[in-house]
Write a structure and sequence with these properties.
The protein is an alpha/beta fold and about 350 residues long. It is built from eleven helices and 13 strands. α1 crosses α2 and α3 runs parallel beside α4. The longest helix is centred in the middle third of the chain and has 16 residues. The protein binds N-carbamoyl-L-aspartate and zinc ion (ZN).
Length: about 350
């Protein structure tokens, strides 16, 4: 039985760090284990222009503990009026590593997102020219479509037609929650990859709804039935280069989640590596954890893997994590996987 595992330092290819007191409070949690992270731009107001990303990057660096080598990889928030020249410049300067597509109204702070996909084709073509990938929140926002079906319908109505119209565009379908999405990613020749979160490997919709409503398991895309979770696990542990970790760790202060209309988002930055080691061990796939957390992501983005390592050690007794992280913006509950965690990062 493996009791110790050394892997290249992991990266997080989908992370919300927020701003202000929340940023200051939670950034150290990701910087502890991760080398780099793709930083989501859904601030209020969103990170739209290169200059916004440059300023936000400085605020993130200022929030990191002294001596931290954590590298924020910046993204721009795609709007219907995004300036293609500004995007190309931000990419070519090395500042920005991807552009994020939110269908308007799909999730937290997505009001400035895209309603009419024809209006962003010019930017997408320019991104294909300069080799800048698009990160996609893959859910339709049509109220006629059941929330549990929104990802599958998005693939058919939006994602596949878009990829056909801009064939050179590199696309990352983010936070997969369905077997439909896993199948779609597997069926693509190239230019398409996907992130999978920690929590979607662990929870299904019963965790949210059975025996009482549990706001700390509510996120978007919402967890689906268990057969989908099993498909996600199979994809994550497969070693297939198209699947990699994007935690979508998305802190909201407890008061904003434990409410009549609670925010979507699960905060997993603190214990993600322990949760993943546990999941991969349960699947007899610890030897493929490194591909998922540390190798497949950089390969798709055309970046080198991190040059240092982390060591995970299996403890005799469960590792304890704080139930919540205190921040100047209020306490943030840490994801509870519902089982004891034995793996700890040394
Ligand atoms: C994210 C957030 O809170 O910003 N919430 C979530 O449930 N994942 C937004 C997102 O990625 O959809
Ligand atoms: Zn997210």
């Amino acid at each position: 039985m493996t009791e110790q595992l050394t892997i290249r330092r992991p990266d997080d290819w989908h992370l919300h760090l927020r701003d202000g007191a929340m940023l200051t409070g939670i950034a150290p949690q990701s910087a502890k284990h991760f080398g780099r992270a793709i930083i989501m731009p859904n601030l209020v107001p969103p990170v739209v222009r290169g200059d916004d990303a440059r300023a936000y990057r400085e605020r993130i660096l200022a929030a990191l503990p002294d001596g931290s080598r954590f590298e924020p990889l910046m993204t721009l928030y795609l709007t219907e009026t995004t300036d293609a020249d500004d995007v190309a410049q931000a990419a070519q300067s090395g500042l920005v590593k991807s552009v994020k597509l939110y269908p308007a109204g799909a999730t937290t702070n997505s009001d400035s997102g895209v309603r009419d996909f024809d209006r962003v084709l010019g930017v997408l073509e320019r991104m294909a020219d300069v080799g800048l990938p698009l990160c996609v929140h893959g859910e339709v926002t049509d109220n006629q479509i059941d929330i549990f079906d929104r990802e599958a319908v998005f693939i058919e109505r939006v994602l596949d037609p878009m990829r056909r119209r801009v064939p050179g565009l590199k696309v990352i379908m983010e936070h997969l929650t369905t077997s439909d999405a896993v199948d779609y990613v597997r069926s693509a020749e190239d230019g398409l990859a996907a992130t999978i979160t920690t929590h979607h490997l662990i929870i299904n919709r019963n965790h949210i709804l059975a025996g009482g409503i549990r706001p700390h398991y509510y996120c978007l895309p919402v967890a689906k039935r268990d057969s989908h979770r099993l498909a996600l696990r199979a994809a994550a542990i497969s070693g297939d280069r198209r699947f990699f970790l994007g935690t979508d760790s998305a802190p909201h202060a407890d008061a904003a989640k434990e409410a009549a209309c609670g925010c979507a988002g699960i905060f997993t930055a603190t214990n993600t590596m322990s949760c993943l080691a546990q999941v991969f061990e349960a699947e007899n796939a610890l030897d493929r954890l490194e591909a998922f957390t540390s190798l497949n992501g950089p390969a798709f983005y055309g970046l080198p893997a991190n040059d240092d390592t982390i060591t995970l050690i299996k403890q005799a007794d469960p590792v304890s994590f704080p139930e919540s992280i205190e921040t100047g913006a209020g306490p943030v509950t840490v994801f509870d996987p519902g089982f004891p965690l034995y793996w700890d990062v040394a």
